[in-house]
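Box 4.2: Ligand-aware structure prediction
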Amino acid sequence: MKTFDTVVIGAGPAGAGCARILAKSNPRVLLVEQHESFQKNDFSSAATPLETLEKFQLPEAVVGTFWQKLEIVSTNKAHTWESQTQLGAVLNFAKLREFLANQVKDCGGEVWLGCRYQKHFQEGGKTIVELRKKGGEKIAISAKVLVDATGPARAVLGVSHRNKSDFLTASGIEYLIEVPPEIYQQYANKLVFFLGHKWMPKGYSWIFPMEPELNRLKVGSARYHLEHQHINPKESIRWYLELLLKDYLKLSQPQYKSIDLHGSTVKYSVGLKDVYYRDNVIAIGDAVSTINMLGGEGIRHGMENAAIASKYIEQYLNNSLSNFQGYQREMRRRYGLKWNFSEQMGRKRYMQDSDVFIDKGVAYLQSLTVEEMMDILFEYKFQRLYKSFGKYLKRKLGFMVRDLRRSRKL
Ligand SMILES: Cc1cc2nc3c(=O)[nH]c(=O)nc-3n(C[C@H](O)[C@H](O)[C@H](O)COP(=O)(O)OP(=O)(O)OC[C@H]3O[C@@H](n4cnc5c(N)ncnc54)[C@H](O)[C@@H]3O)c2cc1C
């Protein structure tokens, strides 16, 4: 039976990121993924701020394109924030995970694709992990540390079947399409988010640019699986996606070419009550809710979590730690407050606000600078919202004075 120091189940950004870090100092790492290729599970829109590339040493080869504008469109309002420099990237999710897995191999680690985790158990003081290959063949290996990086499936620690209300669940689907160059140019360099009941009640939609040379766009919609305070939309997520194509992009086939349709469901543990470890099994990434539920951003947080977990795994392997309690403490300290606040903000925005309130919100945000918007959306610095309240009132007052003067002239 083959023995590894660490076996990581799930080659998403968290699992592959963790295996990459560990393999650099100790190549006795195995990364296991149920899909046979990275193109098969290419579900993420993968927008991220620019710092992600440098922080995780990602090459331009994993970038679809860069962006330097943000636009928010609601039922009756729209506003664009623009920067003179690049603000972020839309990654090619398949290439990102493939790159991370290749780095594991380059360091001497192993990557087994098309191999599904079945179960693990203790035998003779060892942790035996049972895997099943695509064709049905069973393989047993032993591991000193086993990592659950299976995302919302939480397949290894087996905690996804707890009470439904323990989780905040949301589903998203996305088209990758090729559009005429003149349409692509309108969306190059910017992330467009659609809020409000016209575009996506109980969630949001988006248009993100991809490879410019191919005129590709990612067009998607996502929503929470919860009851809304005001409305009960009957239409499917796909219906809203089609609405964006027809009503906003004004495209119908054959004006655009559909390259792929993908999607997934995320499962966030309310109040971050996930199980972070059990004995020598440790969970990372979306398996411990590192996705932020306000904007659904999870790639860099999963990779950051992978770096934290790797530090504890290395200490465990060289016997300077006997359990992963410190890991759980660090994770709760780091994410607890911000993530809980983001969850509350998300619930309010997507499940309680009326359409008029969302329009007013977009009007309010117009007084913010692009830097303030980046701080709110990507750093979760929500205090920026309140600091700008004065600016907003000043602007509103300016409009009122202007209207008053105009009415006096009449
Ligand atoms: C529609 C959509 C759009 C998104 N857009 C963005 C975005 O723009 N920016 C951003 O940062 N984040 C985005 N996210 C979130 C982001 O993609 C996730 O947070 C991130 O992928 C989580 O990484 P992970 O490695 O923890 O889990 P995952 O990426 O889910 O990876 C888990 C892996 O485990 C594998 N696996 C599961 N069970 C088993 C098993 N039994 N055996 C073997 N392998 C198994 C899966 O096949 C998968 O490859 C989006 C999510 C969705 C659904």
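In the box above, the bound molecule is flavin-adenine dinucleotide. The domain at 2-64+91-161+269-344 is CATH 3.50.50.60 (FAD/NAD(P)-binding domain).
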